[in-house]
Amino acid sequence: MFAMGDAIKNSGLVLGPSLIAVVGTICVFAQHLLINASAHAAQRLRLAVHPDYPETMQYSLEAGPWLFPRWAVAGRKTVYVCLVCTQLGFCAVYFMFVASNMKQVLDQYLPAIDVHVYMAMALAPILLECWVRSLKYLVPFSLVANACMYAGIAITLYVCVRDGLPLPADRSLFADVSRLPLFFGTALFCFEAIGLTMALKNEMRNPDDFSRPLGVLNVGTAFIGVLLITLGSVSYIKYGEDVLALIPLNFDQSDVLCQVIKVGLCIGILFTYPIQAFVPFEIMWPAVERRFRPLRYPVAAELAFRSAVVLLTFALAESIPRLGLFISLLGSVSSAFLALIFPPLMDWCWRWRHGAPAWRHATNAAILLLGVFGGSWGAYAALVEIVDAFAKGEMTVS
């Protein structure tokens, strides 16, 4: 959400909100494709619970034509890899977020320190949090994080509008086409939550309420879409082409209220990290455990593995020169596969024996082409700018 000002800058004040709505609608439709494929697999295989995303991928390819069944296991593993990459990418972004905001706050009271030192300072508390091995003990962390984030969003909007806003006509209504790939990656990064779709649906007391026309998925995504458009548009109107990769970085560094919000957001992000990292831990650790079984000290081995994963995200955060470009790159690659490429493939595979109307084929083809073309274009544009940033020595988070 706090990256949406940068997204609107790369698309324009008129084009950006419209494209956000389109991307959100497509992502929701793809989630419905996943839900339908999972339901079909559960019915065909007589499963008590609808399978999750990776399992649905495997079962759908097994039901497909030609060579698809041969790639079923590889498809399941590919989904696992994309989920892990996406979640670890979130975690790397969190390092950058905390370090950049804390630097702005503490620079008002302490001698200036390089932003990478603040990343290193955030490493210790994150390591300790990630040694919590049970999800139920992370619930208090989640409550504090949610409270900080909701308050942060509200205060961010207040800070943007309290001194008035420039006229929208003074901002770019339609950005240059060459910047649209960066918008695509950022918007997809913000909307991509398809990996949680089946987990949330299966945990509901009434699972059918999740995917109804006015159910949890559609209404929840519409609310998030309105919030993204509002936060992105207001911040771009306020700061124009100077809006940074994270909106709070534009705030007056000497303003006490702005400092409070930055500290609160950093606390929320610190407490969110172990929850986001829990998914990669749960996916990767069983495979590592089987590979090196028997383990003499299994708890110590798991803690060492968790620490290694945290250090990996820390190294990634230290290596990427521009936060906004990294968000766009991650959205263009992993998020494009998960949200736009895999769902229509699954839908085609399980429907091929039953037939499908022409509109379904056309829709699946359009989503697939958008994922391939938009993801490739966005990844290329982000990589070019990242290489350029390295060449210029722009090791910043802006």
Automatic annotation (TrEMBL):
<dbReference type="GO" id="GO:0005774">
    <property type="term" value="C:vacuolar membrane"/>
</dbReference>
<feature type="transmembrane region" description="Helical">
    <location>
        <begin position="362"/>
        <end position="383"/>
    </location>
</feature>
<protein>
    <submittedName>
        <fullName>Proton-coupled amino acid transporter 1-like</fullName>
    </submittedName>
</protein>
<dbReference type="GO" id="GO:0015179">
    <property type="term" value="F:L-amino acid transmembrane transporter activity"/>
</dbReference>
<feature type="transmembrane region" description="Helical">
    <location>
        <begin position="214"/>
        <end position="239"/>
    </location>
</feature>
<feature type="transmembrane region" description="Helical">
    <location>
        <begin position="323"/>
        <end position="342"/>
    </location>
</feature>
<keyword id="KW-1133">Transmembrane helix</keyword>
<feature type="transmembrane region" description="Helical">
    <location>
        <begin position="179"/>
        <end position="202"/>
    </location>
</feature>
<feature type="domain" description="Amino acid transporter transmembrane">
    <location>
        <begin position="2"/>
        <end position="379"/>
    </location>
</feature>
<dbReference type="Pfam" id="PF01490">
    <property type="entry name" value="Aa_trans"/>
</dbReference>
<dbReference type="InterPro" id="IPR013057">
    <property type="entry name" value="AA_transpt_TM"/>
</dbReference>
<keyword id="KW-0812">Transmembrane</keyword>
<feature type="transmembrane region" description="Helical">
    <location>
        <begin position="137"/>
        <end position="159"/>
    </location>
</feature>
<keyword id="KW-0472">Membrane</keyword>
<feature type="transmembrane region" description="Helical">
    <location>
        <begin position="259"/>
        <end position="279"/>
    </location>
</feature>
<feature type="transmembrane region" description="Helical">
    <location>
        <begin position="12"/>
        <end position="35"/>
    </location>
</feature>
<feature type="transmembrane region" description="Helical">
    <location>
        <begin position="109"/>
        <end position="128"/>
    </location>
</feature>
<feature type="transmembrane region" description="Helical">
    <location>
        <begin position="78"/>
        <end position="97"/>
    </location>
</feature>
